Amino acid sequence: MRNIILTGFMGTGKTEVGKLLSQKLGYVLIDIDSEIEKEQRTAITEIFKQHGEPGFRDIESAVIKRFSDASRAVISTGGGAVLRQENMAGLRKNGVIVCLMATPETIVQRTSSANDRPLLQVENPLKRIRELLEFRRPYYEKADIIIDTENKSPLEVAEEIIKAVNKAAGCR
Fold it and tell me: 151's torsion region: left (phi>0), alpha (psi -120 to 50) or beta?
């Protein structure tokens, strides 16, 4: 089986689902945001403060490029990684792209207690989520597989991904 690349907006479950997928499949888990923080020796929020979103996206692309040749991996990307064609092309050559989706209301509920979401440090997070989702929707829809995470546990989502990936690969 090829790598499984998890994309989707923040709060859709990429991190939790990625952990479960890697355990179930015996794959290594590569969390791009964690790798960025390790490499930069600082939090994503600090990178945004120091370099802005464009600077962060440059760092993110370099890290994605480095891990795109991994094998037997579940690669969890940041929510905006899809915005750069080079990221998705690099990841797609060795993997299947799975996008996790949720409603803006669910996302705001899942992310409301987190202080590490620089794009949501605004007066009206729900409005911002709607705007970002609308802008990113065409990018997310380029995924090979789209999974709705509404009212599903991370385990249910992981099992649904495995079935969808096997079906796409022609397995039963």
Answer: left
